[in-house]
């Protein structure tokens, strides 16, 4: 009788842009907590039966690093989140070693005020950091995920920070996820690099609260032939996102995705606006109101009002883990280009994706089937071989 041999899956890197923010800290702490059996993977779609046997990298194989422009260590950041009720009390201590290990892999981001490096020098520097992380840690691959604060839409030809990081990800040969409304890969100057990179990518702007609800309610009105006369919304939030979105230009970038969901699902843009108000006292908690004026049979006018109260980091973190695992597996399986099947996760998906959540979920299950059928399993010889692009972007 031959003894069975256990094959340890290779480690996979998750390189977080904004690595010391609330979302990133919750991602690292949450992954460690679930791996240790301290908490269940609530909110992780990749842990549901739909993704059984798709050979996603296990949570225990994920290794974290990233870029940030702030220097507050992750263990301290986790303590602050626990004090605010975002993380469970005691969790920062229980996963302190994992938080400290991730913090040691965070490199200074940029550009900072006074930085005289050219865009290409910044891209090369960021890419070198990622490649060094992969090499030192002996990783099969790494996925770069942007979870930094929202930046205003660019007004000129210069690449904004999110696009510098995105270009660095591709130059380093890594799949890329834009979980923010920032420009990222969608800057025109990156079009040739994106077209030739041979890598999978996804985005943009994670769908965690108000827009998640809109992607369900919008199709409901359309399918029931009820006329939406106006749809208005208000968001109250604090923390880093609240401060960033106090900038009208950043708020406009955020709201564009929210409004696009309604236009796509209703077939027209209803009257009304969405407002975002910074309330620092709320911290990482958000309240979103929607007021929907609609018309029924014989012109009868009616109203639906909804209230969504949630913790952005706790809603976003499981999605970030999902996306990192999905992009890593897609990369291993040889998939390239925009993964439109991941529109389920985003307000403004890249590629052709339906707007209704139900239809997006159906496409996501189709991706699960593709991954189930494609490529060698993690840990088998030949897995993870992928060319690294060398095209430079200026």
What descriptive keywords fit this protein?
single chain, 12 helices, 2 domains, globular, alpha/beta, Rossmann fold, disordered C terminus, 394 residues, four-stranded mixed beta sheet, Dihydrodipicolinate Reductase, domain 2
The top-level CATH class of the largest domain is Alpha Beta
CATH architecture of the largest domain: 3-Layer(aba) Sandwich
Q: What is the number of E strands?
A: 11
Q: Please, what is the CATH homologous superfamily of the largest domain?
A: NAD(P)-binding Rossmann-like Domain
Strand percentage: 15-25%
Uncertain stretches of 5 or more adjacent residues? 377-394
Q: Pairing-aware structural class of the strands and helices?
A: alpha/beta
The percent range for helix content is 25-40%
Sheet with the most strands? Answer: 7 strands, parallel
* Order of neighbouring strands in the sheet with most strands: 3-2-1-4-5-6-11
CATH topology of the largest domain: Rossmann fold
Report how far the terminal alpha carbons are from each other. Answer: 61 Å
Alpha-carbon Rg, integer: 21 Å
Order of helices and strands: EHEHHHEHEHEHEHEHHEEEHEH
């Amino acid at each position: 009788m031959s003894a069975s041999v256990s094959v340890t899956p290779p480690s996979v890197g998750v390189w977080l842009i904004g690595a010391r923010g609330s979302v990133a800290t919750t991602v690292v702490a949450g992954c460690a907590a679930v791996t240790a059996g301290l908490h269940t993977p609530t909110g992780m779609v990749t842990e549901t039966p739909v993704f059984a046997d798709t050979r996603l990298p296990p949570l225990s194989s994920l290794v974290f690093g990233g870029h940030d422009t702030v220097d507050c260590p992750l263990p301290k950041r986790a303590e602050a989140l626990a004090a605010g009720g975002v993380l469970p009390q005691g969790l920062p201590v229980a996963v302190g070693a994992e938080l400290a290990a991730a913090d040691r892999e965070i490199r200074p981001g940029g550009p900072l005020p006074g930085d005289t490096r050219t865009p290409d020098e910044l891209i090369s520097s960021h890419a070198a950091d990622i490649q060094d992380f992969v090499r030192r840690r002996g990783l099969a691959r790494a996925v770069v995920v942007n979870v930094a604060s929202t930046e205003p839409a660019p007004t000129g030809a210069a690449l904004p920070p999110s696009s510098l990081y995105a270009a660095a990800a591709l130059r380093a040969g890594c799949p890329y996820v834009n979980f923010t409304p920032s420009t990222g890969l969608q800057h025109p100057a990156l079009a040739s690099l994106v077209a030739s990179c041979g890598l999978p990518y996804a985005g943009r702007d994670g769908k965690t609260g108000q827009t998640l609800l809109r992607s369900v309610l919008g199709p409901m009105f359309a399918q029931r032939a009820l006329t939406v006369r106006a749809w208005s919304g208000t968001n109250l939030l604090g923390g880093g996102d609240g401060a960033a979105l106090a900038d009208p230009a950043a708020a406009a970038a955020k709201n564009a995705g929210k409004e696009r969901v309604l236009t796509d699902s209703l077939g027209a843009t209803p009257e009304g606006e969405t407002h975002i108000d910074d309330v620092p006292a709320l911290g990482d908690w958000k309240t979103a109101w929607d007021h929907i004026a609609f018309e029924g049979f014989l012109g009868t006018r009616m109203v639906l009002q909804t209230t969504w109260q949630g913790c952005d980091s706790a809603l976003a973190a499981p999605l970030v883990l999902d996306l990192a695992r999905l992009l890593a597996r897609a990369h291993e399986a040889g998939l390239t280009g925009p993964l439109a099947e991941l529109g389920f996760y985003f307000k403004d998906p890249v590629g052709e994706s339906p707007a209704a959540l139900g239809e997006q979920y159906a496409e996501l299950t189709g991706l699960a089937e593709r991954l189930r059928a494609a490529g060698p399993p993690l840990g088998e010889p030949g897995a993870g071989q992928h060319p690294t692009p060398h095209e430079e972007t200026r």
